[in-house]
Design a protein that fits this description.
It is a single chain. With about 350 residues, this protein is α/β, with parallel strands linked by helices. The protein contains 13 helices and 10 strands. It has one domain: NADP-dependent oxidoreductase domain (TIM Barrel), CATH 3.20.20. The radius of gyration is 20 Å and the shape is globular. The two termini are about 30 Å apart.
Length: about 350
Amino acid sequence: MDYRLLGGSGFSVPVLTFGTGTFGGKTELFKAWGETDVKEATHLVDICLEAGLTMFDSADVYSDGGSEEVLGAAIRGRRDQVLISTKATFRRGTGPNDVGSSRFHLINAVEGSLRRLGTDYIDLFQLHGFDACTPIEETLSTLDDLVRGGKIRYIGCSNFSGWHLMKSLAISEKYGWARYVAHQAYYSLIGREYEWELLPLSIDQKVGTVVWSPLGWGRLTGKIRRGQPLPEVTRQRSALSHEMGPKVTDDYLYKVVDALDEVAAETGKSVAQIAINWLLERPTVATVIIGARNERQLRDNLGAVDWKLTAEQVRKLDAASAVPLVYPYWHQEKFDRSPLPI
């Protein structure tokens, strides 16, 4: 398993991270993702470590804290062998302060995650979303205090817009506070909006991309094809999960899947492996989060590394997944002096 530096930091992370959204299955949404218990989670962690995948991603809202609890139990006794990333910001209770990125909520969130994970530090702590109601200075000064106190090693954010991220980086620089080294973002062959603003920003500011849902909310697993019924077990069959995911038209999806099938026939690799491998060659991508309900899915995803698509295969996938740019990006594309992708 290759390792890459995370953004402009000296922190090395494996190119694949295991996402633990399938652990726990306590709520309707997360039952659609998976219901992995401690025994099965321990087995999956064993397989990951054998393959050199040492980073595990969670969040306090996954299965209402159940994901962190199961992960903590699965890594018990081998904390020194793993890297843990987790997230907070979304609502975790009924009180007025049980949500957001205030000092009050973030300190409580970190303490809760540490308790559920059974550890005294988090390697990478990320804001799960941007809180427009809390001053950015309050949020970043709190994260800086948590870093200086040893409870967090590195900080990142997730699902930020370009201006959210850039303003945060500027404030960190102004005050000398800990800086976001990672942005956990949705990016896939059927979700390339990340490239318009966030990718050039991340190149310029040295922010590493942690990709979530590389298979387009379960659509690029190889199980969904033109003219075929949905498989029996898929998050697409959960109305709640389906509605929360990114919207994709059938025509666009099938066009991309057709191209993936062509490349699969040429390479002997699975559709999922090709979709993940394509991401690993994109600028700024430090690690791609893979998920799995079982050993078979995990081993298939692990097969996405240690090989490369040809330039022609990349062009084929790029062409199939290309979408018209929105303003101002279509206008910027006409200016041929930009060294950055837009």
